[in-house]
């Protein structure tokens, strides 16, 4: 097994098979440093979206606001359906470069299909956190650990453009607010459906949960199989990569971390 521990050397593990665990006891520790109480994407809640005038995908940014994080990061991103012809043309060239005849019957529609498939594999680029969360953030006097585990994940290795896939477990310690449970799995979709490396994916998921509900701690463990290590290259078919990000109490308090890992890893 290949294991990568990102935070404190910790290395342990479609929505159908994910499990939710609400723990009965919380290990008390210090609150998280670096909390932000600001809204996601800098939204302040009033006025029309600026996305239309920018010619960019819909968002909740407010006219007159500074450009939101989503649009800052995605400035210049084309409307995705419009790039299908260009992508299909590239796939056609690829088929020809392989020595195939792109005009043979079986391949006639392949370039367009492949373009659409690639857009699906990377659909996270057209999503933003605020829209995905859809205000499913609830005031709740609950400060026990919440764990949603075994969330299926499919992503694309940014080095070889081949898939890596596996499962994600997320835990957080609420501080007055809880997140709709499905939204944790949706956060995984937003960041996994892009060109990624597993370490960045793991951290982005944790930071998104932090932004959403400002908990006193967030823990994320991702276990992935990388096709670039399985089907090609070093060809280690049983290798797994395990990454984790521990924030706040999960980083500072060993007992809290251990409780999460026990819940996340139990079958
Ligand atoms: N850290 C990290 N590395 C990754 C991830 N996905 C793929 N890689 C690695 O990216 C590296 C690219 O190395 P290169 O030597 O440039 O490419 P390569 O010749 O295809 O490498 P091999 O895979 O060893 O054949 C490889 O070691 C991959 O295993 C990831 O999610 N995280």
TrEMBL record:
It comes from the Eukaryota. Its EC number is 3.5.4.16. Pfam families: GTP_cyclohydroI. It catalyses: GTP + H2O = 7,8-dihydroneopterin 3'-triphosphate + formate + H(+). Residues 1-20, 31-51 are annotated as: Disordered. Pathway: Cofactor biosynthesis; 7,8-dihydroneopterin triphosphate biosynthesis; 7,8-dihydroneopterin triphosphate from GTP: step 1/1. Residues 10-20 have a biased composition (Low complexity). InterPro entries: GTP-CH-I_C/QueF, GTP-CH-I_N, GTP_CycHdrlase_I, GTP_CycHdrlase_I_CS, GTP_CycHdrlase_I_dom. PROSITE patterns: GTP_CYCLOHYDROL_1_1, GTP_CYCLOHYDROL_1_2. GO terms for cellular component: cytoplasm. Keywords: GTP-binding, Hydrolase, Nucleotide-binding, Tetrahydrobiopterin biosynthesis. GO terms for molecular function: GTP binding; GTP cyclohydrolase I activity; zinc ion binding. Residues 88-263 form the GTP cyclohydrolase I domain. The keyword Nucleotide-binding applies. Residues 33-43 have a biased composition (Polar residues). It is an enzyme of class 3 (hydrolase). GO terms for biological process: pigment biosynthetic process; tetrahydrobiopterin biosynthetic process; tetrahydrofolate biosynthetic process. Belongs to the GTP cyclohydrolase I family. Toroid-shaped homodecamer, composed of two pentamers of five dimers. This is GTP cyclohydrolase 1. The lineage of its organism: Eukaryota, Metazoa, Ecdysozoa, Arthropoda, Hexapoda.
């Amino acid at each position: 097994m290949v294991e990568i521990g990102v935070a404190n050397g910790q290395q342990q593990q479609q929505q159908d098979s994910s499990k939710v665990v609400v723990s009965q006891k919380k290990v008390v520790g210090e609150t998280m440093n670096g909390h932000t109480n600001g809204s996601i994407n800098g939204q302040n809640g009033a006025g029309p979206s600026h996305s239309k005038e920018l010619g960019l995908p819909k968002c909740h940014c407010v006219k007159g606001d500074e450009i939101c994080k989503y649009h800052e990061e995605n400035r210049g991103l084309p409307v995705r359906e419009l790039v299908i012809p260009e992508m299909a043309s590239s796939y056609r060239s690829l088929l020809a470069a392989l020595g195939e005849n792109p005009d043979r019957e079986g391949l006639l529609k392949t370039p367009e299909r492949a373009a659409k498939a690639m857009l699906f594999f990377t659909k996270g680029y057209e999503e933003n956190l605020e829209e995905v969360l859809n205000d499913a953030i609830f005031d709740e006097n609950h400060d026990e650990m919440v764990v949603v585990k075994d969330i299926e994940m499919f992503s694309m290795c940014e080095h070889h453009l081949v898939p890596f896939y596996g499962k994600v477990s997320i835990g957080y310690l609420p501080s007055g607010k809880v997140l709709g449970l499905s939204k944790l799995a949706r956060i995984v979709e937003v960041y996994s459906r892009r060109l990624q490396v597993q370490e960045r994916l793991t951290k982005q998921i944790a930071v998104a949960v932090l932004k959403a509900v400002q908990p006193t701690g967030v823990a994320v463990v991702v276990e992935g199989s990388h096709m670039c290590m399985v089907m090609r290259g070093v060809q280690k078919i049983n290798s797994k990569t395990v990454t984790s990000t521990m924030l706040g109490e999960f980083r500072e308090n060993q007992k809290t971390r251990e409780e999460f890992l026990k819940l996340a890893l139990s079958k």
